[in-house]
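Re: the request from the purification team.
They wanted to know what the chain is likely to look like in 3D before they choose a buffer screen. I agreed to run a prediction and write the result into the notebook, where they can find it.
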Amino acid sequence: MFDALDRAVGELSVAGRSDAEVSQTVSRGIGEIDAGAAHLSAWRSRAGETLNRLDALDSRLAQDKLQAQQARSEAEDLDMLEAISEFQNRQSGYDAA
């Protein structure tokens, strides 16, 4: 895009150009700038799509991490309850003996 601007400025700097030549230079420069802007817009769109995919992936990973932590917590809590119950059963057995 900057090359297009440099070319247009360079051609417009030449003295003694006719109105038709100036008009043609301006039209060509605007066309090149528009093409560059469209190209830049396409790349911005691609970058936006990639960021959206990364955000969705991050969200899914955070959700999976939370579910894993909940499952771990439930497993640890279950083991603790089982251990307490087993202790109380043995204690009752010892008291009865």
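For the purification team: The mean pLDDT is 89.
Please add any questions underneath this entry.
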